[in-house]
Amino acid sequence: MKPQNGISLSVLRRTILTFAFVLLHFSLSFAQEKKDIQIHFENDRIAVEKGSTFTNFLVIENKSSEEVAIQSIIPKELYPGLLFYPKNDFTLGAGQSKNLPVKLIANLDFMKLRSSEIQFQVSYTTPTVTRTESASFFVDKGENKNIAIYTETFENFINPALPESSILLIVENQGYSKRTVKIDLQSIPDGLEMMPRQPTVSLEGLEKQTVEIKIAVRKQNMLYPEFNINAIATDLADNKIVGSNTLYLVILSHNRQIARGTEAVGGNNFAEISYNENSSGFNYLQLRGNTAFRVTDNLKSRFNMGADYYLDGRYNLYDTWLEVQRKNTVLRVGNVNSNDYDYPVFGRGGKISTQFGKNNQIEILALENNYNLYGTYFRQTEGSTMAGAKYSFGNAKSFNGKVSYLFDHDPRFNVETQVTNATTSLLINDKHTIRAEMGLSHEKGLLNRDENEGALMGANYEGKVGKWDIQSINSFATKSYAGIKRGSFISNQRIGRQFSDSQRAFIQYQNSQIDPEFLSFQSTPIQPGNTANLRYYFNSTEALGSGYQFSLKKWNFLLAPKVERQKTANFYTSHELFSYRLETNISGTFGAHGLNLLAEYSYSKADNSDDWFNSLKTTLSYRYKSFSLNGTAQWNATNVFDLTSYYDTDRNFANYNVYASYNFQLMNNNLTGSFSAGTSYSELYKNLNSNVSGNLEYKISPSLSTTGYFNFSGYKSMADYAGSGSYYQFRVGIKKYFTTATTLGNHKVTFQLFEDKNFNGLLEAGEPVLANEIVKLDNYVAMTDKNGKVVFQNVPEGIYTLKVNESAGARLMMDPAIMVNNNINRKVGLVKNIRVSGKLSEIKQAYDDVETDVTGIVVYAKSEDGKIYTAVVNQKNEFEFFLKDGKYDLYIENDKYSYIQPIQTIQVTKDGYSGTVVFEYKKKDTTIKVKKF
After folding, report:
1. pTM check: above 0.90
2. Hey, is 18 helix, strand or coil?
3. Contact, 792 vs 258, CB < 8 A?
4. Which of 130, 412, 633, 674 could be 663's S-S partner, Cβ–Cβ 3.0 to 4.6 Å?
């Protein structure tokens, strides 16, 4: 038998055997040679720090039966910091070995090496061969690989009246390798235009550069003109974030707040009246709003209101409450809600809480479980009455806990309930958090006299061990426990490991069950075998899964397989779904664009059937700035609740959903709003739904707005004997914001600055006011107007330090300590300082055409009493001081250049200083040799 190409199988077998024999021979020969002469370093890796010396031993072993001559040991390259290595030849007898020291110092040039591998070439001869082999080891450099981003001073402020303002951003490479980074700048809140918004900087090891960022104000809050600039550095080599900082920026104004007051944002401190109309015909007027105010210096208050007046004369009052606070005690009456009772607590009544000690608090409440505070639109029924108390202790970080008790008398269901709950949390070494929970409850039926007792136990752990993350959540509540977790069993175990900044994996086990037991309906007597007055349902999920997450440039990926079993049951039906699942998630961000794809494939069987089926649920989301588009598609059942459908007994169906939204700010942010629209089709439930809605607000003035809202939805059923319908609603209103610059209890501080020519502290005829002067009250910055006035609003009581911008030539002649315990209006005299200007001038050699950059170099001026002033060289190589009269030493501490006269002494008089201080400098270690012909 021959193959189609005509070569016999026997010839083919012999050829393969021959090649295998030759390959085996060479492999054995190579292995023997490697075994005879072994060359390696004693340590594969050595950790080093800058300035330290270290030694590694080059090990040469002769395991042959012949003598070996070591001819040379040569480093692969001339490594900086190489102090010693063996250079003489020598001989190794059979069975001998030598440990040869290689010593280096981790100087700056060594730390800047691009490669971490140190490699040597070893040449040797034996009676049969001459060979050169290499041996290497790696150094782990103790370096900071971050990129530092900061400004020369913590306080950065710009004058919006100037045509162009800028700040100098310093970008510093704290590592030893060359880096090219991209700096992303973001204004918080929005309102700054920055150019360039995304500068790119190339840095040598340990190099710092100054980047000028030009800033314009797009929208200014005059009362609280503070911005944060988030600066994030991304290494372009691997697209990883290597540094970040938040820079503080103040837009200078003549009138600003010290403490942020209640502003016209986020639905705070406003009143709105609107007209609502809907397709049902129940049209009404709505009044809602809230405010915060101070009754006395020691008594603060907040008030919230929501009320509807229907055009047929009925009304409803809800979400209305008054809160009063005095020192550490808060009293609230009206609509009340509270948490941490392991029981739903909301209604109308009162709540009081007081804090004592450092971290302890007691809360007592009494209320009726009714959302309406008062009204005639809804029939007033008797709700359940509640009374409760809670004691909280510990601090928010290391140790805390609470104990609560609640009593609920419900006349509608004729049941009385008592729930006691206690939790505590402990943080160990900032890495391990342990939380424990216990609960007891008692229920009693007032008519059937049946009773239930219940208990809850829980223990959670969350911690980090090295690169491992561990999370364990466990709780068990008996069937008759009356708290929120009634009849539940939860066990969720998760272990994750971080392989790198862009890779992690996890494994997770989940087992959760809900199997509650309730008292009988008290309206029907208990009868054996009759379940009509009982409630029963059961849900459970058990799953074992794992996942792997990783990032590639701008993309993030997740792969997560899982095995899952779900069950649901009640008196009438029960279902079970067993599934093998694979979840995938792919997301990416590209500037203002964002894309996210989530898909879950399942291979399942229902109710222990032998028939397996496939299902898929996928969601695709796209975002561009304030616009988002989302689409979801589902084929076949993906959870056990899909199996309860009435219409699709064969379980083959498809559901689709599309949703889009857009948020906008137009007309200089005076017009804001949002639009959203969506439609969904369900083959499972045989219906089609659609919805369009929008929300608008237009600012007529800083404190007055018009508002509008609309909503239209449609429904259509495609089942037998089905129908369709639609619904609309719209609202138009007017909203008034109450912006208080200074709240009651705080104070208004006004200064008027003038040049005190005769040093008497009084503003007299002929003495000019100082406009556009920078003034600081502690660290709060403002600027005087054309009349020399500046106002600080909402200043809490205390002692503040008044400072003026002395670098601009003004010197304060009064005690700078200002005690604020009432409103202040004070005239402040200043004496103008003398301007001293200077520049840096380079002395170049012939044929030297390389330009230098001295922008950002600091120049110091030291007075006779030892006080030091600073100035920064600008882009024109110039600097300036504003000094009072006296003798000063001007000097530069910068080793980048050589200065001809690094220290210069000047005398400043009251008549001024007319000269220009010039620092001449040369490039270091630069010599240009010119050959003459």
Report:
1. no
2. helix
3. yes
4. 674
